[in-house]
């Protein structure tokens, strides 16, 4: 089910507060301002900034961030306490089974929360922003093009039947299209935010200790392993398909 960004952000206040915090940390230009005398590459080439040009660039960057960032639809800002992060990998050793294992685990969590899984990116970049001919990505883009147009930057609600198709496509987009933002996953009544990264790791961010314990037990019973840092537990394609849009 296709949803606008505001519709997705209206589902879960914990998720929305987390996303807004991430946007401030990743995309805000505050603390990364240009300065007089700094050498930068602009459209006209290498430029040494004057005070006026530095101030202009800083203002443009701030305006871009203010225009692109999301706003919470909830009246009151939540006071969240971050409980920690866990990185998980499937125990399956083939690419197909590995991604299927993730899809069915997420479907199991949908049954637990009694709600559809929802997914949205942490920036308003369109899902179809980066086009590729690499076969797994081309298939993923074809799948998305059957549902949305090139300007779509919203999110989706997925039923359990749809996840075994969607999750592999999502992974190949994340792995190979380096210009895309991070895609975040959660459920209506969850206090956990999940993302799937380019290594095939599941990154879980917790805001409730009881739910943290429940989810870790859930994944342990499904033979997922906890790892200490981000890396590939199986070889997908040696990153030969990963590209950055310039």
Which secondary structure elements does this structure contain, and how are they paired or packed?
Elements: E1 2-3, H1 5-9, H2 13-27, E2 39-42, E3 45-48, H3 51-68, E4 84-89, H4 95-113, E5 117-121, H5 135-145, E6 155-158, H6 163-176, E7 183-186, E8 192-196, E9 202-206, H7 209-221, E10 225-227
Antiparallel strand pairs: 1-6, 2-3, 4-9, 4-10, 5-6, 5-7, 8-9
Tell me what the structure shows:
The protein is globular. It folds into two domains: 40 residues; 147 residues, no CATH class. 39% of the residues lie in helices and 17% in strands. The chain is an alpha+beta fold.
The N- and C-terminal alpha carbons lie at a distance of 31 Å
Number of helices: 7
- Largest sheet data: 4 strands, antiparallel
Q: Structural class, please?
A: alpha+beta
The beta-strand count equals 10
What's this model, at a glance?
The protein is α+β, with helices and mostly antiparallel strands and 246 residues long.
Descriptors for this entry?
10 strands, alpha+beta, 4-stranded antiparallel beta sheet, 246 residues, 39% helix
């Amino acid at each position: 089910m296709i949803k606008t960004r505001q519709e997705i952000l209206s589902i879960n206040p914990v998720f929305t507060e987390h996303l807004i915090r991430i946007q401030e940390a990743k995309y805000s230009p505050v603390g990364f301002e240009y300065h007089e005398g700094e050498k930068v590459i602009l459209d006209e080439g290498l430029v040494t900034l004057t005070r006026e040009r530095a101030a202009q660039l800083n203002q443009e960057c701030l305006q871009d961030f203010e225009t692109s960032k999301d706003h919470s639809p909830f009246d009151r800002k939540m006071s969240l306490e971050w409980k920690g992060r866990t990185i998980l990998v499937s125990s399956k050793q083939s690419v197909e089974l590995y991604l299927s294992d993730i899809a069915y685990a997420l479907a199991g969590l949908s049954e637990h929360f009694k709600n559809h899984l929802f997914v949205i990116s942490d920036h308003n970049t369109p899902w179809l922003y980066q086009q590729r001919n690499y076969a797994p990505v081309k298939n993923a883009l074809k799948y998305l093009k059957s549902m949305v147009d090139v300007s779509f930057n919203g999110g989706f609600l997925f039923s359990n039947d749809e996840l075994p198709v969607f999750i592999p496509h999502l992974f190949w987009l994340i792995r190979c299209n380096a210009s895309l933002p991070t895609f975040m996953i959660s459920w209506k009544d969850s206090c956990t935010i999940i993302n799937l990264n380019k290594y095939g790791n599941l990154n879980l961010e917790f805001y409730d200790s009881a739910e943290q314990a429940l989810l870790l037990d859930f994944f342990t019973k499904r033979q997922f392993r906890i790892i200490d840092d981000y890396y590939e537990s199986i070889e997908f394609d040696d990153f030969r398909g990963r590209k950055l849009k310039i």
